[in-house]
Amino acid sequence: MIVNRLSIGVVASAALGLAACSGSPGAPPPPPPPPPPTASGQWVASGLTTGSLSLVLIEAGGGSVEGTGSFSGPAGAGSVEVTGVHTFPNVNLTIRSAGFENGNFTGLMDSAGQMMSGTLNGFGFVNSPVSLRRQ
């Protein structure tokens, strides 16, 4: 009986040692989430009942956004310069054009980074719902 108990103890110890040394990795860690989309690119407004807005934006580090573009609206038409901030999903752009009061777009970017939906103020627009679609 002593031999059987000794044999069982040795076998159990060996099995535990092999399991500990086998290094079975289990499931690999999940991949890191993708970075949020940036505002860099060409954007065209849709949803405006009158007029148009087209922007080319570049997002630098820290969410700083700059760009240029053109607009036409109830108050006239012209070229624009854009500055703003993108902290995904929030977007806030100030739109400037000589001879006009500054405009502002405030909205949210979708998770795919293909559309920014919000409101446009300035250039004759007042709280106008607008979607900027990536081209």
Report mean pLDDT, rounded to a whole number.
Answer: 86
Distance between the termini: 82 Å
* β-strand number: 8
CATH architecture of the domain at 41-134: Beta Barrel
Descriptive report:
This protein is mainly beta and 135 residues long. The protein has a domain at 41-134: Lipocalin, CATH 2.40.128.120. Helix content is 15%, strand content 50%. It contains 1 helix and 8 strands. Strands 1-2-3-4-5-6-7-8 form an 8-stranded antiparallel β-barrel. A hairpin with a 2-residue loop joins β3 and β4 (76-87). The protein is elongated and about 65 Å long. The termini are far apart. 21% of the residues are buried.
Descriptive terms for the model:
mainly beta; 8-stranded antiparallel beta barrel; Lipocalin; 135 residues
Layout of helices and strands:
Layout: H1 2-21, E1 41-46, E2 52-59, E3 64-73, E4 76-87, E5 90-96, E6 103-109, E7 115-122, E8 125-134
Antiparallel strand pairs: 1-2, 1-8, 2-3, 3-4, 4-5, 5-6, 6-7, 7-8
